[in-house]
Amino acid sequence: MAARGVLIFLVLYFTLNLIQAKDKKTKPNVIVILSDDHGYRDVGYHGSLFDTPVLDQLAGEGVKLENYYVQPVCSPTRSQLMTGRYQTRYGLQHAVLDPLAPACLPTDEMTLAQKMKEAGYSTHMIGKWHLGFFEEACLPTNRGFDTFLGLLLGGGFHFSHSFPSAAYYDMHRNRSPAKELNGTYSTHVFTNEAIDIINNQDEDTPFFMYLSYQAPHAPLEVPEEYKDPYRGIFQDEDRLTYAAMVSCLDEGIGQVVQALKNKGTYDNTVIIFSSDNGGSIQDAGNNWPLRGFKLSMFEGGMRALGFVHSPILSEKVKGTVSNELYHISDWYPTIIEGIARSSTRGSKSPLDGKNQWRSIRDGTCSQRHEILHNIDPLWVVPGGRDWVNAMSPFNVSINAAIRFGDWKLVTGDNGRTGWYAPPDTNIVSISGPPTTDQRAWLFNIKDDPLEMNDLSEERPRVLKFLLQRIQKYYEQSTPVFYPDAQPQLADPCSNGNECVWGPWTPM
Ligand SMILES: *[C@@H]1O[C@H](CO)[C@@H](O)[C@H](O)[C@H]1NC(C)=O
């Protein structure tokens, strides 16, 4: 009797193991590729003179996301990618993380990488982190990544991997400075690492790779040979360098895809591409014909480049353009539940992201009809008029924006309001309206994606509805966490870190 029990147990045990092993093996690999300050205009398939054959082909064979949003600036896009939650939920509403301040993505937030580990994936972070590092607990390898090769800061030099000067080093392999990479161009460093990881991947374990390039973010630097094809095409030297940075990025992504094909893992891999915010006009990026640019609550700040490419997409969506509403926070549940067939249980609540995998894979409707773009109570522009400024606690002097269906409300600051033409064309820029005390704008983005027609006077009821929605989010917000910089203590050349950026002891 007992022997029979043992036998049944063993059979069950091995069957279960077999099923689990098979499931693990068949789980798709996931690569999330982020480009940095990459303008909406600045890719071949959006009609620019940029030569991006790889991005054009990958997007062209996959699903182009043309109603897809990120945050207007870098750290918050990354924090929402990692957590699936709006930045108002954990205090990162204001600006980007300052390397001299004791702040990082709060360590009680669950990350995408942690969840992918739970789902049986090996997890790899390559490139720009920019989610804080003042404590050990903030580092990528303590936030769910098995391996890290990259930068902790947000805008260092591309060859010397340093900021603000060559002496201050910021290229790390896991917990150590990777000094041997000093002098190698950042895009090449990250591409090579991605290829190594793909080549060395154990075939029974799926992998999750977050490949976060720092190109084409300033400083504008690139190996000379990438500039040659653009000579005579771009007169403006900055624009030429920026285009060359995008070309190098495009080439690198092509090499990563080729590595997947050589290794035989391409057929079971999902590639997600996204920019992190709008292009910066001052740094040669361009978002024409969208209004505004990086940091702006107008579309040019946050309507992003994005596509999904994978052999496992349904045949009927391959080569299509999706106009469904998606947001950077959606990747968290989309990847964990949709692609990895795992669970988001144990994540902090509420999750703001929606699982969009079926929508993207099969071309069905988005699970989302609303996006809180942000509410930044530290960015206040006094002024405003009429009843729209009479609400409390939210009022329209606060820099904020929300989308509901086709409608969008923008409040507060009205800087960066123009339409900035690409310097390489005959197109003429349109300056924004003169500064007034107007602090609330209402647009129908479907009818008017360029935000030329403010409807805040004509549609007071829609305006009021959106103000009530944003008020609700404001009431749920966590207070902003934006501590003062501590330049002396954070300085790696004076805090005992031998001029390598890393954890330090705040006051
Ligand atoms: C990297 O190389 C540059 C140029 O040779 C040098 O000035 C700098 O000190 C090096 N950085 C480190 C951290 O060794």
What attributes characterize this protein structure?
Arylsulfatase, C-terminal domain; Alkaline Phosphatase, subunit A; 15% strand; 2 domains; 26% helix; 10-stranded mixed beta sheet; single chain
Q: What is this structure, in a nutshell?
A:
The chain has helices spanning 2-26, 53-61, 74-83, 112-118, 186-200, 237-263, 299-302, 331-339, 357-362, 460-476, 487-490, and strands at residues 29-35, 63-65, 68-69, 122-128, 147-151, 172-173, 176-177, 207-212, 269-275, 306-309, 320-322, 326-327, 370-380, 398-404, 407-411, 440-444. It is of the alpha/beta class. 2-acetamido-2-deoxy-beta-D-glucopyranose (NAG) is lined by residues 160, 166-167, 169, 179, 182-183.
Outline the structure in words.
- The chain has 507 residues and is an alpha/beta fold.
- It has two domains: 27-362, Alkaline Phosphatase, subunit A; 370-476, Arylsulfatase, C-terminal domain (2-Layer Sandwich), CATH 3.30.1120.10.
- The chain is 26% helix and 15% strand.
- The protein is built from eleven helices and 16 strands.
- The strands form three sheets. A ten-stranded mixed beta sheet has the order 7-6-5-4-8-1-9-10-2-11, with helices on both faces.
- A hairpin with a 2-residue loop joins strand 6 and strand 7 (176-177).
- Helix 5 runs parallel beside helix 6 (237-263).
- The longest helix has 27 residues, at 237-263.
- It is globular.
- The N and C termini lie far apart (68 Å).
- The mean pLDDT is 94.
- The structure holds 2-acetamido-2-deoxy-beta-D-glucopyranose (NAG).
- Residues 160, 166-167, 169, 179, 182-183 line the site of 2-acetamido-2-deoxy-beta-D-glucopyranose.
